[in-house]
Design brief:
Helix content is 69%, strand content 5%. The chain is elongated. It comes from Luteibaculum oceani.
Amino acid sequence: MNPKVNSALHIISFVLISLLVLDRVGVFGEKEKKAKPVSQQGEGFNFAYIHSDSLSANYKFIAERAKELAEKEQKLTEKLNIKVKKLETRFAQLQSKADIMTRAELEAAQAEVQSMEMEINQLRMQLAQELDQERIKMQMELYKRVEDVLKDKAAEHGYQTIYSYTQGGQVLYINPDRNITDEVLEVLNAEKSEE
């Protein structure tokens, strides 16, 4: 085949393919198709969000439970401090008598101090575990309460999803009209005052 004819066929093919592509993307005479906002698409995605920071700061249950936990922690710390004080007192007594003790008495005193130290360490671990369990229990109760209210709100308003929004989090912008934090807090705090 003649090279000039071959070159002309390539150019014609390229132009035809280009025209076909341009036609498909709507360059020739069609108005540009814009995506409709979700609210205009009929069965759109209906969502809401809560400010988790505001919820934490203004939900009375959290403040009350945090106060209860702090009081419990203080009582447990006092209990631990009493044991530590007893150990220190006993250790000072044994140390003051160390010069006149026999080897067997020194070994017995050392065993007594070690036993008391072990008891204190066990108590410290037990108290930390108790506090952790209380915190977990509080978090579970908090989650359940909030989840129940959010489920009711979702059913009432047809929300498919309710997000937890925190400034500086993964979501950079969210429509403030979708904020239901105050509504949720109103229900949560009303439930708390009814108890």
